[in-house]
């Protein structure tokens, strides 16, 4: 049963709401599905939640409405992120990128994602312990990049840059290939497990990371194997691509701004590929992320 893994999940609660949905008038059914979606932990798949319903008839019903619950659940997650605004932390990043990834890979298993992120964080932690007698902030960065690039092989997908799978966390972790922002997400989620002061940087055309501790600062480019960069090099990149040198390009990116950028990337790719249905799905999510309204229909 799932209750041990998801202590906040109640199959009885879902069962009751499904029964209410079955007998409710049409104008209330949508609201009840939104309620069900909000009761399913983000770490748990909708299909898994449906299988936890004890009543066999309601379980069949849950399977039938699962696609609609799935859509409501993503909208609910993104709406919560919008309400929080541009926070200075990444506590909500993992949930957001997992929900986005589920659009491209509906059958993904979050526990597989979590297991890999935990394992990589443990490996970095072990290296920190091995070098504890001379562990500087610079060495921490070098060891993080060593694990994620040299040992794990995360690198930019130069061969197929415009593959939409490069933007979905589940596939990035499986393939070890991605685009600058999705690879940066992997670094951030590992760094978050270790309490490292690593942040996203919304540089135009090429997302970067910045490590900022009390005595050490550097930019990191996960797309090119975790190479370390100084600000001068980043400014030259801006100039070479026709952008003015502006402080706004070097501010720390929030989870919200990163999710918007990932959605815009996907919309562009799906539009170029004439994948109208997927373009519309991602556009719907972006509209939620850009909303400041008090509710989501």
TrEMBL record:
Coiled-coil region: none
Residue ranges of domain Protein SirB1 N-terminal in the record: 112-264
Pfam family, one: Transglut_core2
InterPro entries on file: SirB1_N
Family: Belongs to the UPF0162 family.
Annotated protein name in UniProt: Transglutaminase
Source species: Leptospira ognonensis
